[in-house]
Write a structure and sequence with these properties.
Layout: H1 5-8, E1 12-16, H2 23-40, E2 44-47, H3 66-80, E3 84-87, H4 91-98, E4 103-106, H5 114-121, E5 126-130, H6 140-149, E6 155-159, E7 162-164, E8 168-170, H7 175-180, E9 186-189, E10 195-196, E11 205-206, H8 211-221, E12 225-231, E13 245-246, H9 250-265
Length: 267
C-alpha cells in the first residue's frame, strides 16, 4: 500500500471512531474526515475497531459482531476510496481481518506477541505495531524485526505514550527519531497517549483538550503519521468516550498541524 504523504509534504492520518457501532455512523465520520483531508492534501486511512478485546469490565461494549463490523469497514473503504485499518488480538484473526482491511494494527499490550506478529506478517498486509506502554522505543526494533523476518517489510511503528504512575501516560518525543532509524514510518497516537487508565470506576479516562498539544509537538519533531480517534458525539460513543476528539474540531486542528509541518519543511 502506497501513501503519497511525502509528495504532499504532509504527515498521513489514521483516523476514525474507536469502535464500529454501525454503518451509518462509520460512513458519516469517514466522509467528513475525507472531505477535510482531501482539502488539506493529507493522505487518510480510516480506522475502526471491529471488536474491543481489551476492556476494563466484562460489561463494557465489545462490538456489534465481527463479520458485521468488518463488512462495514470494507464498505467504508470501497465507498470512500481510502485504505482501512483495524486491530487484531489473536493469531486466527489476522487472516480474517486481512480479507477486509489494508492495514493490521497490533495493540500495544500485544506488541511482543511473537505468533501474532508472525500471523499478521504472513497476510502480506501493512502491519502497524503500537509500542507497549511498558517498552522503550529501542525495544521496538525487535517487534519490527519479527515481522520483517516473517517475510514482510511493510511495518509501521506507533508511539502511544509510556505508563507514568498508575493513571497517566507521557510521550517521550525522543522515541520518534529513535524508531524512525529502524527504517519504518513512525506514527504518533494523539488520543491514546492521553488516556487515563486504571480508574476506580473501571472506565478509562482521558484528556482530549490536550490532543492539539500532543499533535503539534509530534509534527514539529517530524513524525510520519498521526493517529487519532474522533466521533461526532464522543460522549455518546460506546468505547473510549473520554478521549476522542469531537469531529467538529478536526478541521481546525489539522489546519494548524499542516501549518506546523510547512514551517518544519522550510527549515
Amino acid at each position: 500500500m502506497q501513501l503519497n504523504h511525502q509528495d504532499s509534504g504532509n504527515f498521513f492520518l489514521i483516523a476514525g471512531p474507536c469502535a464500529i457501532e454501525g454503518e451509518e455512523m462509520a460512513l458519516r465520520i469517514g466522509e467528513r474526515i475525507l472531505e477535510i483531508t482531501d482539502t488539506l492534501q493529507i493522505p487518510f486511512i480510516f480506522k475502526g475497531s471491529y471488536r474491543k478485546a481489551n476492556r476494563s469490565r466484562i460489561d463494557s461494549f465489545s462490538g456489534i459482531g465481527d463479520e458485521k463490523a468488518l463488512t462495514i469497514l470494507r464498505k467504508v473503504g470501497e465507498t470512500l476510496g481510502v485504505p482501512t485499518t483495524t486491530d487484531i488480538h489473536a493469531d486466527e484473526e489476522a487472516a480474517m481481518a486481512a480479507a477486509y482491511v489494508d492495514v493490521l494494527q497490533i495493540p500495544a499490550f500485544l506488541c511482543r506477541q511473537t505468533s501474532l506478529l508472525e500471523a499478521a506478517a504472513k497476510t502480506g498486509k501493512v502491519v502497524n505495531i503500537k509500542k507497549g506502554q511498558f517498552l522503550s522505543p529501542s525495544a521496538m526494533q525487535h517487534a519490527r524485526q519479527k515481522v520483517v523476518d516473517s517475510g514482510n517489510d511493510q511495518v509501521w511503528l506507533t508511539e502511544r505514550g509510556v505508563t507514568f504512575g498508575y493513571t497517566d501516560l507521557v510521550v517521550d518525543y525522543r522515541g520518534i527519531p529513535t524508531m524512525q532509524d529502524y527504517g519504518s514510518p513512525v506514527i504518533l497516537d494523539c488520543t491514546h497517549s492521553l488516556q487515563q487508565p486504571n480508574q476506580s470506576s473501571g472506565v478509562t479516562g482521558g484528556r482530549p483538550a490536550m490532543i492539539e498539544t500532543i499533535a503539534r509537538a509530534g509534527v514539529a519533531v517530524g513524525v510520519d503519521g498521526l493517529f487519532l480517534e474522533t466521533h461526532y458525539a464522543p460522549a455518546e460513543a460506546k468505547s473510549d468516550a473520554a478521549n476522542m476528539l469531537p469531529l467538529d474540531q478536526l478541521e481546525s486542528l489539522l489546519r494548524k498541524l499542516v501549518a506546523v509541518r510547512q514551517a518544519v519543511n522550510g527549515f
